[in-house]
Write a structure and sequence with these properties.
Elements: H1 19-29, E1 34-37, E2 41-44, H2 45-61, E3 69-73, H3 78-89, E4 93-96, H4 103-113, E5 117-121, H5 125-132, E6 140-144, E7 157-160, H6 161-167, E8 182-188, E9 196-201, H7 202-219, E10 230-231, H8 240-243, H9 245-252, E11 255-258, H10 264-274, E12 278-281, H11 283-291, E13 303-307, H12 314-322, E14 325-332, E15 339-342, H13 347-350, H14 354-361, E16 366-367, E17 372-376, E18 391-396, H15 408-414, E19 420-428, E20 434-439, E21 444-446, E22 449-451, H16 453-460, E23 466-476, E24 480-489, H17 497-509, E25 521-524, H18 538-551, E26 556-558
Parallel strand pairs: 1-11, 3-4, 3-5, 4-8, 5-6, 6-7, 10-11, 12-13, 13-14, 24-25
Antiparallel strand pairs: 1-2, 8-9, 14-15, 15-16, 17-18, 18-19, 19-20, 21-22, 23-24, 25-26
Helix pairs in contact: 1-9, 2-3, 2-6, 7-9
């Protein structure tokens, strides 16, 4: 194709898309809005800008330079927000360590990322010292405290975060550089092998932030987050930049509330006292909030929450709605920065029944601006967007990870055919709505049919006795696989396998599921295993079921 390219005028400034551009707007819009950390600290946006400059001076004095990797081990805090700006604004890379991984996995990620400097919260001193002798590239460490007087025997300790910031200059001239420079990295865990390093550039994060700001600020019929909202993340900041919302909030000059370690009582207290109106989390965290002692009887009216990470079930949607919470489903992955799609009630659906609108509220939703989505079969052929054809969801967008850190072969698998492969089975309809049916590895193949574990979990969860459910496929000599369900019951309720069968029979009669979908076994448990980011840990669940079956555990009951 012959295109026309006109060179810029002599002296024209070619504006690089850098994270520092996002910081400029918060103070411009709202100088008095606050950044709040638990019940410990609060300060204004101009102070945020000043503290980021102080941190940049501290890191520069410690020898951090462009291209270095600086790791952070902290709970959700104002300090994390400062690091999310200061480190990449120096041209360095921030490695957000998943503190919920095992010590062996954390050690692997730090050595693989080649961390040079580490900022360590005092809560993790024991963990850090346990692996410190095996760290291959770390040269200096900084201690993070909440002001308590703690001494720490950390290797190559430079000093305590707040003390160092207090002594540093409040001004720093951040240089321009290539917008395609890597800004962030973190590690995503799969079902096998070591965690994989995902990375994003300044350009990708800026574009993602702008698209996400447009989404939360005005795409839906109900604005999710505007300048008068109060934001509190309930997704760890080490997990895909807290879904990118801290960058959006800073861009918009919104009051931000950081809860530190997730404790139900503190979360409810901050919601009440700081008048929080917008959050995001995975379903398990929301379940915890709804059922915690501090939240009993509370009307959470006015709280808008995006649910991602796992499918939003109808029972959870209805339970939250009854407590005054407006839930909106969204979809993304570690590799997608993460925002890909969000539930949207368009003009066509506005005139539909409440039942129909609810059905679309809990789907993965419509791809956000600049995202292309398609469905392919196992041979890579594109399938029609008819709402029925199921295949793997593949994506294109300007902020998708271009590969995995130092693992080109895995990056090539991710991008086979020039589309990012999600590993999710989905449908697309004529309104462009994505409906995630299951992870490819979690689809249950039984009786010659495919059964979606997500659909089954949704239908089972509608039983009034059930608080939480997980379904997995287990090997079966006759049928290939059979569903097995783990159930957490509500206090004072009882249910057995026969009772669950009776509950599911009407859905079979309606054609929503086939007869092979009824679980062959159920296990009544007090807690369902979760991953480090709060998702159902189906790998661990399968291992537990194998052990229970081998032991003829009384936890399991069969039809």
């Amino acid at each position: 194709m012959q295109t026309r390219v006109i060179p810029p005028a002599e002296g024209a400034y070619e504006y690089p898309l850098l994270i520092k551009r996002l910081l400029m707007s918060g103070s411009r819009y709202e100088k008095t809005r606050e950044i709040v950390y638990r019940d410990v600290l609060r300060y204004s946006y101009p102070t945020l800008t000043e503290r980021i400059a102080r941190l940049a001076n501290v890191l520069t004095e410690a020898g951090v330079k462009a291209g270095d990797t600086v790791a952070v081990m902290d709970w959700d805090s104002h300090r994390y927000l400062e690091c999310m700006f200061a480190i990449p604004m120096l041209g360095a890379v921030i490695h957000t360590i998943n503190v919920r991984l095992s010590p062996e996995q954390i050690l692997f990620t730090m050595n693989h990322a080649e961390d040079r400097v580490v900022l360590v919260n005092s809560d993790f001193i024991g963990l850090y010292n346990a692996i410190g002798g095996q760290l291959e590239t770390v040269e200096k460490t900084f201690l993070i405290t909440d002001g308590e007087t703690k001494t720490a025997d950390l290797p190559n300790l430079v000093g305590e975060y707040e003390q160092l910031l207090a002594a540093a200059s409040p001004a720093y001239e951040f240089a321009d550089f290539d917008e395609n420079s890597v800004a962030t990295t973190f590690y995503t865990t799969g079902t096998t092998g070591n965690p994989k390093g995902v990375y994003f550039t300044h350009r990708q994060i800026v574009l993602h932030t702008l698209a996400e700001a447009a989404l939360v600020g005005g795409v839906d019929s109900v604005r999710l987050m505007g300048t008068n909202d109060v934001y509190m993340p309930i997704t760890p900041m080490f997990h895909v930049h807290a879904w990118g919302i801290p960058y959006v909030s800073t861009l918009m000059g919104i009051k931000q509330v950081y809860p530190g370690r997730y404790e139900p009582d503190m979360l409810v207290k901050l919601w009440q006292e700081e008048k929080v109106t917008f959050s995001h989390c995975v379903p398990t965290i929301l379940q915890m909030l709804i059922h915690c002692k501090s939240g009993e009887g509370l009307d959470f009216k006015g709280w808008k929450i995006i649910i991602g990470g796992s499918a939003l079930s109808r029972p959870l949607y209805e339970a939250a709605k009854a407590r005054g919470i407006q839930l909106t489903a969204a979809y993304g992955m570690s590799e997608t920065c993460p925002m890909i799609s969000c539930a949207h009630i368009n003009d066509q659906l506005q005139g539909a029944s409440e039942e129909e609108r609810t059905r679309y509220r809990i789907k993965a939703g419509v791809p956000v601006s600049l995202v292309e989505a398609a469905i392919v079969d196992t041979d890579g052929n594109f399938l029609p967007a008819d709402g029925e054809s199921q295949g793997e969801l593949v994506l294109r967008a300007p902020w998708l990870s271009m590969g995995y850190l130092r693992e080109p072969e895995k990056g090539a698998e991710l991008w086979a055919g020039g589309w990012l492969h999600t590993g999710d089975v989905a449908t697309l309809d004529d309104m462009g709505v994505i409906d995630i049916r299951d992870r490819i590895k979690d689809v249950i193949k039984t009786g010659g049919e495919w059964v979606s574990s997500l659909d089954l979990e949704d239908l089972i969860g509608r039983h009034g006795a059930i608080r939480e459910v997980a379904v997995v496929g287990m090997p079966d000599a006759q049928w290939g696989e059979r569903p097995v369900a783990l159930l957490v019951l509500r206090d004072g309720h009882a249910l057995d396998a026969q009772g669950l069968k009776e509950h599911l029979k009407p859905f079979i009669d309606l054609g929503q599921i086939n007869k092979w979908a009824i679980p062959s076994q159920i296990a009544l448990v007090t807690e369902i295993p979760k991953t480090s980011v709060g998702k159902l840990d189906k790998k661990r669940i399968r291992l537990d079921i194998v052990q229970w079956q081998a032991d003829s555990s009384p936890l399991l009951s069969s039809l």
